[in-house]
Amino acid sequence: MNRKGLLQSGAFLVWVFVLAVAAPAQQEDAYRGLRAGLIEEIRADVKLTSERIGRARLTDRVLQAMLKVPRHEFVPDRLRPYAYENRPLPIGFGQTISQPYIVAVMTDLMDASEDATVLEVGTGSGYQAAVLAECVKQVYSIEIIEELGREAAERLERLGYRNVEVRTGDGYYGWKEKAPFDAIMVTAAASHIPPPLIEQLKPGGRMIIPIGSAFMTQHLMLVEKDPGSKIKTRQLLPVAFVPLTGGH
Question: What gap in Å lies between CA 182 and CA 37, rounded to an integer?
Answer without folding.
Answer: 32
